[in-house]
Design brief:
There is one protein chain. The protein is built from 10 helices and 10 strands. By secondary structure, it is an alpha+beta fold. A 7-stranded antiparallel beta sheet has the order 2-1-10-9-8-7-6. A hairpin with a 4-residue loop joins β6 and β7. α7 crosses α8. It is globular. It starts with 6 loop residues before the first helix and ends with a helix.
Length: 380
């Protein structure tokens, strides 16, 4: 999952201009001024190389890209088509309003909802999940286990073949299936870190149990509206939206992925949004602390997935993956991969850099440029 993270640095390497260079002759300049000249030239060269590479990347991508720093968007681009079967049709081009299924980028919102309730003393992260979902036989599994993927629960997606294909699935149906078909003996928490979507399905249901509201309604009122997100919807809400600008997911062979009974399960995925709405979320959550206090946000982006007192190689906070990279600094990120959608969202805390890549075409075009970007960044 290293993928596009190096772009975080290279797009914003520096904004030196010719008028910042001293106008006197080189023989009269100080060492500091001479170093500034060379630094300016070096940064400009890197910037030009990066722009050339980004332009080349655009030829291979189908989706939206957004780069920002602080509260400013530096670079934004919409490329390709909502339906690859209609390439060339101007009405099918991706625009800034086009909605993407966020896949696992949805998990950060589910985690934020849980942390908001915890900050209001409406739950404790060490509470057993059976306190809120009593039909489940997993009394040793805590809310924190769900947040950090240390629950030991199996992947509900693996049971799809046993589900009724004629009925859209819901979170409650997943809970009912686990309560009836997955015995407690199969679930051993705190044994390993294993990324499992079931965890975030259960978290969304816990939000509903505590608040008495649909997860969709609670999220809109407490997350989306405070962040100023006006173009963000759950799959379960799409049928009520007129003139919806929706991207369809595609596999690597460009075939369109059909609808699926599990799209209506929320918490782990099934949230639709745009690049600009996600940028609004990034500002509200990471910079302005409109959703959670700074203390709670720092907990969310700090590794929390301890196993027997030790952290695994793959670090996970609450709804975010974390990478401590000696070259780029700490990166807070999450990927998304679901039914032909493929995304990466990354935040670098030390200088508030943000990069987002949304794609409705699973071709991994952005992965192959990582080494080239690294070489540019490091001057190799």
């Amino acid at each position: 999952m290293k993928l596009l993270f190096i772009l975080l640095q290279v797009v914003f390497i520096g904004n030196y201009h010719a008028d910042t260079i001293p106008k006197k002759g080189i023989q009269f300049q100080t060492t500091q001024e001479i170093n500034q000249i060379f630094d300016c030239a070096n940064q400009q060269l890197k910037s030009d190389e990066v722009l050339l590479l980004l332009t080349d990347m655009e030829k291979q991508l189908n989706g939206s890209m957004l780069y920002g720093k602080g509260d400013s968007i530096i670079y934004e681009k919409w490329i390709g088509y909502k339906k690859l079967s209609k390439v060339g049709n101007q009405k099918e081009k991706i625009t800034k309003e086009s909605l993407f299924n966020l896949a696992s980028l949805s998990k950060q919102f589910t985690a934020a909802a849980i942390l908001l309730l915890a900050s209001q003393d409406k739950l404790d992260l060490d509470d057993p999940i059976t306190k809120y979902l009593p039909s489940l036989p997993y009394s040793r599994v805590t809310i924190k286990n769900l947040l950090t993927h240390t629950s030991g629960l199996p992947e509900y997606l693996n049971y799809e073949k046993y589900f009724n294909k004629n009925i859209p699935y819901t979170n409650q149906k997943v809970i009912n299936y686990f309560a009836a078909r997955v015995p407690a003996s199969k679930v051993v928490p705190n044994r390993e870190f294993k990324y499992i979507n079931t965890n975030y399905v259960f978290l969304a249901s816990i939000v509903e149990k505590i608040t008495g509201e649909k997860f969709e309604d609670y999220s809109r009122k407490n997350l989306f509206i405070p962040a100023g997100m006006t173009n963000t919807f759950f799959y379960t809400e799409l049928s009520d939206i007129s003139n919806i600008d929706l991207c369809e997911g595609h596999l690597r062979n460009k075939s369109q992925v059909s609808d699926n009974i599990l799209n209506s399960v929320v918490g782990d995925k099934s949230l639709y949004s745009t690049a600009e709405d996600l940028f609004k979320w990034y500002i509200a959550f990471f910079i302005e602390y409109k959703i959670l206090s700074k203390e709670w946000v720092e907990l969310a982006i700090t590794p929390q997935n301890y196993i027997k007192g030790k952290l695994p190689n793959d670090l996970y906070g609450y709804g975010f993956r974390i990478e401590n990279n000696p070259q780029t600094g700490t990166l807070v990120y999450h990927g998304g991969l679901w039914r032909g959608f493929h995304h990466v969202m990354t935040f670098r805390p030390k200088d508030q850099l943000f990069i987002l890549f949304l794609s409705n075409y699973r071709n991994r075009a952005h992965n192959g440029k990582t080494n080239e970007l690294l070489e540019i960044l490091e001057g190799v």
